[in-house]
Every structure is written in C-alpha cells, then in structure tokens.
Design a protein that fits this description.
Belongs to the YajQ family. InterPro entries: DUF520, UPF0234-like_C, UPF0234_N, YajQ-like_sf. This is Nucleotide-binding protein Ctha_0558. It comes from Chloroherpeton thalassium (strain ATCC 35110 / GB-78). One of its GO terms (molecular function) is nucleotide binding. Helix content is 36%, strand content 28%. The protein is an alpha+beta fold. It has two domains: 67 residues, Alpha-Beta Plaits (2-Layer Sandwich), CATH 3.30.70.860; 87 residues, YajQ-like, domain 2 (Alpha-Beta Plaits, 2-Layer Sandwich). The chain has a four-stranded antiparallel β-sheet, with helices on one face. A hairpin with a 2-residue loop joins strand 6 and strand 7. Helix 1 packs across helix 2. The protein is elongated, with a radius of gyration of 20 Å. The chain starts with a strand and ends with a strand.
Length: 165
C-alpha cells in the first residue's frame, strides 16, 4: 500500500489572540504614565484588516508600537504579520501610522518555498494552492525534514503547518 502524506504551509493570523493582544495594548496605553497626555490611540478596522495608531509625537508613537509588538509576542503572534506604513502628520501636531495585517502566502513567497523544497532533493512535491502551499510525499520523515527546513527559512511572512495527514 503506497499512501502519500501531506501537509499545508499557510500564513494565518489567529484573530482571537490578536484581539486579546490589542485589548491588552489598549489597556496598557491608558495606564502608562509616560503616555498620559499624548492623546495616543489604537483603532482597528476589521474590514480592512488595518490598525491606525495616533499619538502626539513620533517618540510616543514608537512607544505605542512597542506596546503592541510586546503584547503580540506574549500572545504567540508573529510580528512578521504586521506591515508598517509611513508615519504621517495628522491634525493638531499629532502623528498617525497605519499598520496592515498580512494573511496568506503571496505568489512570490510561495515560489520561494516551492524552490526551497525542490532544492532539498527529497522525494516530495510542493504545489501552490491559492494562498497556501501543499507539500506531499511518501515518507513522513522527509515531510518532517521539509518542515524543519521551512521553519529555519527567513521569510517575511509567518508560517504555520496544517492538515498534516
């Protein structure tokens, strides 16, 4: 019986954990003494998957970004899923920064993953399926080797492995 095994390489954001991290960041923002009179705020547009940060100056905006990053790391969310926009001036001498959330593996990174799998010279196949990459092969050991190699790759998107069969 020659059965094949496979797994999917995906880049998904756990929205529940992200929401928890965001709520913790908002709570800390209200309690921090150094950010008291800076009118700093964090707003999340769920439809556009975009964070909007506002603060009195760039220094306090950097502190808000640090708060968000630390809360995300504590909740186990990779900060690679954040795409930082430029810091732009807003009303009344304040500054604003938009941060987009990235989900899914784009074609360029999917191609890098498939090429890396082919360069390993293992008996596995990689195929791009929309925003995920399916790796299949006859040996579970080879699939685990591919998994560990992909974890060590430095890609601009966080990777998760699902549908291991």
């Amino acid at each position: 019986m020659s059965s094949t095994f496979s797994f999917d390489v995906v880049s998904k954001l756990d929205m529940q954990e992200f929401d928890n991290a965001l709520n913790q960041a908002k709570k800390e923002l209200q309690q921090r003494y150094d950010l008291k009179n800076t009118n700093s705020s964090i707003e999340f547009n769920q439809k556009d998957m975009q964070l909007t940060l506002e603060s009195a100056d760039e220094f306090s905006l950097k502190s808000v970004v640090d708060i968000i990053e630390s809360k995300m790391i504590k909740r186990g969310i990779s900060i690679k899923s954040l795409d930082f926009g430029k810091v732009e001036p807003a009303s009344q001498k304040s500054v604003r920064q938009k941060i987009s959330l990235k989900e899914g593996i784009d074609k360029e990174n999917a191609k890098k993953i498939t090429n890396a799998v082919k360069d390993m010279k293992l008996k596995v196949q990689a195929s791009v399926q929309g925003e995920e990459v399916r790796i299949s092969g006859k040996s579970k050991d080879e699939l685990q080797t591919v998994m560990s190699a992909l974890k060590e790759m430095d890609l601009p998107v966080p990777l998760q492995f699902t549908n291991y069969r």
